[in-house]
Amino acid sequence: MKKLIISVSAAGLILLFSASSGYAETITKPPTRLYEQNTMSILWFQNSGEAKALYFQGYNIGKMRLDEILRKKQYNRALKPAIVLDIDETILDNSPHQASYVVNGKGDPRDWSKWIKRADAKLLPGALDFLRYADSKGVEIFYISNRQEAAKESTIKNLQKVGVPQADANHVLLQQESENGKENRRQQVAKTHDILLLFGDNLGDFSGFDGLTDRGRLETVNKLKEEFGKKLIVFPNPMYGDWEGAIYDFNLKKPWQEIEKIRRDHLQTYEP
Asked: Which residues belong to the signal peptide in this entry (predicted)?
């Protein structure tokens, strides 16, 4: 039986996701203002120096940690050293796709396939320099994304176009129909490699976060606080992600009016 997860994209489009297949379909059309609620998130991501600084910071920390681990040989030398990275909003910038929902006030999540086929996403700051550095140190690089396997050719084409090293079928691991999350692919890599560092914009890019409530995610972050900046490197993405789905308890059968109310109810404010 396929598990169904309801989610609302940050752009406000209400979707129905099959966790096993990753397929999404529109189940209701939200008002234009729900799309527009993502305007500031996308503006910040695309235009703020702070967003770019955080990417540089994350990859700088990654380089320092990689140097330290390799220099001190702090890994299982019986295995090959490796790093694991997400792709979207970690290496490639898909914010133009998100912006299209805001500008046009409409859209279909299946348009992600059209965007991916363009293979035209640009690099995020610091990504290429870090990846080339890791490659020069003989570290294997695995790109683990929840893009569907059908998008593999276009994904590899995009990565190769921007000069990312080791962007081939053996290192680009996309989601299979039977999968829910990335843990299985991480475990497959770990059978033959010691994963030194993991990079992502979503807590689901790390072990232990799949399917957690918003409170559960915060609690798990607290438990793993020593690992952030040490083994786990997080990048900013206010545009979309499991952080939003968790607020709705991953229940997308809610009407858009309720979704909008939940958003407002989760804001922490004060009495003026």
From this structure: 1-24
pLDDT tens for each residue of 93-123: 999 999 998 898 776 544 688 899 999 999 9
Whether the CB-CB separation of 180 and 210 falls below 8 Å is answered with yes
In the chain, the number of structural domains is 1
Q: Which domain holds residue 218?
A: 55-238
Is 197 inside any structural domain?
A: yes
Q: What is the pLDDT of residues 179-189, one digit of tens each?
A: 889 999 999 99
Q: Which of these, 103, 111, 104, 80, lies nearest to 15 by C-alpha position? A: 111
